[in-house]
Amino acid sequence: MMAQLTPSPAGMLKRIRLLLGIFIAGLVLSGATAIPLEAEIRSFIQVVHQLGLPDSSGTALWLAKIQTALTETNAKFPFLAYGTDWLAFAHFVIAIAFIGPWRDPVKNVWVIEFGMIACLLVVPFALGVGAIRGIPFGWRLIDCSFGVGGIIPLGLCRREIKKLARATVS
Predict the structure, then answer these.
(1) pTM of the predicted model, to two decimals?
(2) Burial class (CB in 10 A: 0-12, 13-18, 19+), 117
(3) 25 — phi, psi (to 5°)?
(4) Three-state SS at 29
(5) What b/e string do you get for 69-90 counting C-beta neighbours within 10 Å, with b at 16 or more?
(6) Distances in whole angstroms, Cα of residue 156 to Cα of each of 8, 17, 41, 115, 120
(7) What is the pLDDT of residues 30-65, one digit of tens each?
(8) Is there a contact between 87 and 33 (Cβ–Cβ < 8 Å)?
């Protein structure tokens, strides 16, 4: 029978930092996409057309509605886009908070746990507030996927941090 190899603390730290890097990059990219919404929706609609989705499909109609809302709002009330600029800023600031666990994961595991709680809260928030705002259910599920997609690397990261804490105490 082969003995199971225990990863070294350096190997655990490397995995923790890889997982944190994925999560931080996701936050930064997600934040960056909150700024150029009008241009993004135009590009997204072009891609949908190239994929051959009919203009009468639910997705195409919803995207056209978003495009109209953004175009008209930005033309008449450009200052409202400042709200999504602040959304982007919040993503960047939250990403900075994860530098603590990058530097000292065991001491800052609470930041990982905070992030996991925030990811869990995405689901009821997207489903509830999205319903109030008239967001189609499928679109709300896409929003929920961001919480699920974030909790996976954070959960793995937390598991590695707990292993690292046990390995460094022994």
Answers:
(1) 0.89
(2) exposed
(3) -60, -40
(4) helix
(5) ebeeeeeeeeeebeebeeebee
(6) 17, 11, 33, 12, 15
(7) 999 999 999 999 999 999 889 888 888 888 899 999
(8) no
